[in-house]
Amino acid sequence: NYFADSSDEAAADESTDTTSTEGFLADVSRQWESAADVDNARVVKCRMGVVLSKKGGALGKLYLPFWLGGGGIVGNGKQYFTFVSARDAARALVH
User: Fold this and answer.
1) CA 43, CA 38: separation in Å to the nearest integer?
2) Which of 36, 40, 65, 93 lies at a 20 to 30 A Cα distance from 57?
3) Mean pLDDT of the 33-55 span
4) Residue 12 and residue 68: Cα distance in Å, rounded?
């Protein structure tokens, strides 16, 4: 599913029609996933949030700028931030 950028609405689940979701990331996701479809080939499309780890990933890249005072408040605090730990992401892909 592609989720709208709104904290005022309930998040979609598997039964929700999200084909009309608009926006840059929704468009890119649709194009990217449709490009992966190949005739007569099994394709698995794994959607995850931002991967966080103390050893790297997005958190590793963001830590230093915030520690040096370059970070700040991002948004109004009501936006979604989906994430998954690096360990859980690896286990999901291997499973």
Assistant:
1) 8
2) 36
3) 83
4) 37
Q: Say which amino acid occupies 21.
A: T
Per-residue pLDDT band at 18 (split at 50, 70, 90): low
Other Cβ atoms less than 10 A from the Cβ of 71: the count is 12
With contact defined as beta carbons under 8 Å apart, do 63 and 57 qualify?
no
- Backbone dihedral region for residue 31 (phi beyond 0: left; psi -120 to 50: alpha; all else: beta): alpha
Distance, in Å, from the CA atom of 30 to the CA atom of 52, rounded to the nearest integer, reads 24
How much is the pTM? 0.53
The tokens of 39 are what? 């005739």
Given a cut of 70, whether residue 7 has pLDDT beyond it is no
Give the pair of three-digit tokens for residue 66.
Answer: 């915030």
Q: Rounded to whole angstroms, how far apart are CA atoms 22 and 30? A: 11
